[in-house]
Amino acid sequence: MQETLRGQHLPADQIKRVVKRELQRLGKNGENVKKVDLEGPFIVVYAADPAVLVGTPELAELARTLKKKIVVLSEKPKLESESEAIAKIKELVPERAEIVDVIFVKETREVYIMAKRTGYVVGKAGSKLTEILRETGWKPVVIRAPTMQSTFLETLQRLLVGGAVERKRNMRRMALRIYREPLGLRRGIYITFLGGAREVGRSSVMVSTGESSVLLDAGIGVGSGEFFPRYDSPDFDLDNIDAVIVTHAHLDHAGALPLLYKYGYRGPVYVTRPTRDLIALLLYDYMNLSKRTGSIPFFSEREVRLLLNHMITLNYGETVDISPDIKLTFYNAGHILGSALAHLNIVSHRHNILYTGDFRFRNTRLLNRAVSKFPKLETLIMECTYGGEKDVIPPLADAEGQLISLIEETIGSGGKVLIPALSVGRAQEILLTLVKAFGEGRLPDVPVYIDGMIYDATAIHTAYPDYLSNYVREKVFKEDEDPFTEPHISPVRSPDEREAVIEGGPSIILAPSGMLEGGPSVEYFRRLAGDPKNAVILVSYQPEGTLGRRVRDGARRVEILSNSGVEVVEIRALVASVEGFSAHADKVQLLSYLNVVNPRPRTVFLVHGEPKKISAFHSLAARSIRGVRVISPHILERIKVA
Ligand code: ZN
């Protein structure tokens, strides 16, 4: 192949021609390649016999040369009858895999195989997958079945399978924009901070190159701050946005996505697969909660469907073209399941930007720490939620020890333990700690109840062990054990069951929200706080103005809004705050990240922090990494980086 084609941006038609020509040349079988298409950033090859191409060194070489992902599909499945195809799959895959469901999507020529032990479906180095493709003509997509039954996941699966045709159509349309003829304009690279600058909440950052514009995160405000990012800014034009990249499934980073679709955005949203699932869960929960409290949510199910049908999922480490001059790669961020650092390679300017989203730079039971080594890096946009002077998080082992002994004492004296926890992340971190303690006989034999969204969020965790810590992966893949399903843990699914838990004997209760603002944790608190035998253990950050903050700060009497009006609750239960489970990097981790991140950036932007913490960390950072430009941008500030 001509040297000039290497990794170069080519318009759609040219790519198709080049790929077809090269495949015919490499595959020797010129008749095999029937069609080459572009779907989103991916090249899709339709072949008479896909097995001739799949897994060949020639195909890998071509993908490497073009720096693109090539997917091979059958032009027409060999076994068109689904029952025959299922029979064949079951013949090829050992029973130990425990296949629980097989779904065919005709339009995409894919077969979704859900199994409990996916390793047996994949086979050694993917050998089983190739066999399935060769024997049936369907491209297998292997999904690890959640070990916990979740109605939400079933709904999501229906939505995704039901939306396959529309998604395919969208992917083809979006590909035309990604692989358009570049204008060749060379303006500077500008970064505009539309939200999350000198504040926590509504994170959204726009990167514009003259050729293209992308949005990093689209969050809404949490707590008392402003709600939407500044999409009213004259610098922001929805029609000019090529891609939205979302780092993780927290509302302050993803909550404004439905708004974009409501106002006509029809471009892609790039996420990891677990992030996609968790965002859907959060948005449905948000709609339900709004309905229950009688307020009207700013979006409807229509926008959530539109969003799901425009999402393009990427694995960590997979690089794709998202516009004529920008390539995107996700790396593990260690914050919550599926969380990613977004790395933009702006080819036109040979400039690289890393946006951390939220991240943590130490290992926990649930997640590995954030990646700190990149091929190239000039500009770093880093969160500093815990960049304050006193923000030093104690070691995890101390936090775990403190939590277990508090629970032991409370249960020993016949009480119940309420742990208000964020549904995604914190709850699973705590569950893993409890499961380990049960295993080591360090906890008495009492039930652990998980209420609200925690159950579904945990079910999503069980489906993606690949995205979790070495500790979890070891358990799942080596010991064939699921650390989230443990006989002590059971869900609370109805108000009656909740009543039974409140009236029942000693137990441990995990319920959202983590800050006692909305969600079942408030109801448990209202009913359990009056009894001195009980304990309320806070494991999350408690923002100003929340009930959790007042309780943590020692209030002995609080007012709670319940169905019967305002109720005064006397707090006689033990209230304790256990630090150390934070999902963010603390001051020490932030500093160490700045010092080890490789290569060293030329410019560092500090975002996602209260103004006081940002300025405290700014001086620390400027002293610690000399020669690096440190900037703490204001909202709506537009800064040239190249
Ligand atoms: Zn977050």
Explained architecture:
The longest helix is centred in the middle third of the chain and has 20 residues, at 273-292. Helix content is 33%, strand content 22%. The chain has 642 residues and is of the alpha/beta class. Helix 3 (82-92) packs antiparallel against helix 5, helix 10 (273-292) runs antiparallel to helix 14 and helix 19 runs parallel beside helix 20. It has a seven-stranded mixed sheet with strand order 12-11-10-9-8-7-28. It contains 20 helices and 28 strands. It is globular. The chain folds into four domains: 3-74, 2-Layer Sandwich (GMP Synthetase, Chain A, domain 3), CATH 3.30.300; 82-161, GMP Synthetase, Chain A, domain 3 (2-Layer Sandwich), CATH 3.30.300.20; 189-390 and 584-640, Metallo-beta-lactamase, Chain A (4-Layer Sandwich), CATH 3.60.15; 398-581, Rossmann fold (3-Layer(aba) Sandwich), CATH 3.40.50.10890. It binds zinc ion. Residues 248, 250, 253, 335, 358 line the site of zinc ion.
Q: Summarize this, please?
A:
With 642 residues, this protein is α/β, with parallel strands linked by helices.
Give helix % range: 25-40%
Q: Spatial order of the strands in the main sheet?
A: 12-11-10-9-8-7-28
User: What share of the residues does DSSP label as strand, in percent?
Assistant: 15-25%
User: Regions with pLDDT < 50 over 5+ consecutive residues?
Assistant: none
Question: Over all CA atoms, what is the radius of gyration?
Answer: 25 Å
Instruction: Give the end-to-end Cα distance, rounded to a whole number of Å.
Output: 32 Å
Task: Summarize the biggest pleated sheet.
Answer: 7 strands, mixed
CATH class of the largest domain: Alpha Beta
Named once each, the bound ligands are:
zinc ion
Roughly what is the average pLDDT, rounded to an integer? 92
Number of helices: 20
**Shape, principal axes of CA atoms:** globular
User: Structurally, how many domains make up the residues?
Assistant: 4
Main structural class: alpha/beta
What is the count of β-strands? 28
Query: What is the CATH homology-level superfamily of the largest domain?
Result: Ribonuclease Z/Hydroxyacylglutathione hydrolase-like
